[in-house]
């Protein structure tokens, strides 16, 4: 007798769908798109505009952008295109558009992230604030009931304690700004006990004490926690960890960029997760997409940035 393989139906990513649906109910925001010179970045910006989430200004080599749109059958009617001869000039121009109030958000096109962030972080002409900029992956994992925030997996390579404080505060502010409530924040390490042999466990303990003293606000922190006992109630129970965060974390703070990047990509390629990306800590949210992103992920990245920008306008969370 031949046994039929079990068929698992595709699960809609309802977490992203809620964010996108909420964003569509709000006014579109002016968004400067840096160097959208490949199909993924140009199509992504125009699809977000079609969905009513952004009003894009495309910045890059005008002839190249128009020729690309024509070859793809994309309509640029009514879309502003500002000529910039190369990617560096495009990065500087989109930053200028935000500085002069002509855009409220930035979107990365087909330039390297370092080029865009270099323009953002310039001391005089950039968009710096007192806060360190950091990246947050907003993960929709099909096998996990909650949206997971992972930070920082794209900007800060080996952050020190002060940088981690800003990284955590940025992520908490985003979570609250999306109307998701008070987040449970897990400071990840390889183990859940403090040991001098693993420096990240000491930093985790220090960060939790900083939260106790009001240096980090708006979330519940615990750490060090290993990944399993951060997200699995059963793993936390077996280890005898009793806290409001263990087994139920919503924000995962990684020790360094390498750990975060590997964690996010493991969830993406082994668990079928989508990973929307946003950079925070500048004067405007930055939509950081990848060429490998599908349409749903690109739309979710725009929705997250848009909801956060609206919440910062009003200084109140937008309920998603």
Model description:
With 320 residues, the chain is an alpha/beta fold. The protein has a domain at 130-281: Isopropylmalate Dehydrogenase. The protein is 42% helix and 17% strand. It has 11 helices and 11 strands. It has helices spanning 14-24, 39-50, 62-72, 87-99, 113-120, 161-177, 199-212, 227-231, 233-239, 257-271, 295-314, and strands at 29-34, 54-60, 80-83, 105-108, 134-140, 148-151, 184-188, 220-225, 251-253, 274-280, 286-287. An 11-stranded mixed sheet has the order 3-2-1-4-11-10-5-6-9-7-8, with helices on both faces. β1, α2 (39-50) and β2 (54-60) form a beta-alpha-beta unit. α1 (14-24) packs across α11 and α4 (87-99) packs parallel to α5. The protein is globular. The termini are far apart.
Average pLDDT, all residues: 91
Q: State the order of secondary-structure elements, H for helix, E for strand.
A: HEHEHEHEHEEHEHEHHEHEEH
Oligomer: single chain
Structural class: alpha/beta
Cα radius of gyration in angstroms: 20 Å
Instruction: Give the CA-CA distance, first to last residue.
Output: 49 Å
For the largest beta-sheet, the strand count, sense and barrel status come to:
11 strands, mixed
CATH superfamily of one domain: Isopropylmalate Dehydrogenase
Estimate the strand proportion: 15-25%
Number of helical stretches of at least 4 residues: 11
Helix % is: 40-55%
CATH architecture descriptor of one domain: 3-Layer(aba) Sandwich
Major sheet: arrangement of strands: 3-2-1-4-11-10-5-6-9-7-8
The general outline is: globular
Low-confidence stretches: 1-10
Number of strands: 11
CATH secondary-structure class of one domain: Alpha Beta
CATH fold node name of one domain? Isopropylmalate Dehydrogenase
């Amino acid at each position: 007798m031949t046994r039929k393989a079990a068929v698992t139906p595709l699960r809609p990513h309802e977490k992203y769908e809620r964010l996108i649906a909420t964003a569509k109910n709000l006014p579109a925001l002016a968004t400067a798109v840096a160097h959208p010179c490949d199909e993924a970045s140009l199509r992504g910006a125009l699809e977000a505009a079609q969905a009513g989430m952004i009003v894009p200004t495309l910045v890059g080599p005008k002839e190249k952008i128009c020729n690309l749109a024509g070859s793809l059958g994309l309509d640029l009617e009514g879309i502003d295109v500002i000529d910039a001869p190369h990617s560096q000039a495009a990065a500087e121009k989109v930053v200028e558009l935000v500085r002069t109030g002509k855009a409220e958000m930035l979107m990365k096109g087909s330039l390297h992230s370092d080029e865009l962030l270099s323009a953002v972080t310039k001391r005089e002409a950039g968009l710096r604030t007192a806060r360190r900029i950091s990246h947050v992956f907003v993960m929709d994992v099909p096998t996990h009931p909650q949206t997971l925030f992972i930070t920082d997996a794209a900007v800060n390579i080996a952050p020190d304690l002060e940088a981690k404080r800003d990284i955590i505060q940025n992520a908490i502010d985003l979570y609250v700004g999306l109307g998701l409530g008070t987040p449970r924040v897990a400071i990840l390490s390889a183990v859940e006990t403090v040991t001098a042999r693993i420096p990240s466990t000491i930093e985790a303990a220090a960060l939790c004490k900083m939260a106790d003293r009001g240096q980090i606000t708006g979330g519940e922190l615990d750490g060090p926690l290993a990944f399993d006992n951060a997200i699995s109630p059963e793993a936390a129970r077996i280890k005898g960890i009793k806290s409001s965060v263990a087994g139920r974390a919503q924000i995962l703070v990684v020790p360094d960029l390498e750990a975060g990047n590997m964690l996010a990509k493991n969830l993406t390629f082994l668990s079928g997760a989508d990973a929307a990306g946003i950079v925070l800590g500048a004067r405007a949210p930055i939509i950081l997409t990848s060429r490998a992103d599908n349409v749903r992920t690109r739309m979710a990245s725009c929705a997250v940035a848009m909801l956060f920008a609206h919440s910062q306008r009003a200084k109140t969370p937008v309920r998603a």
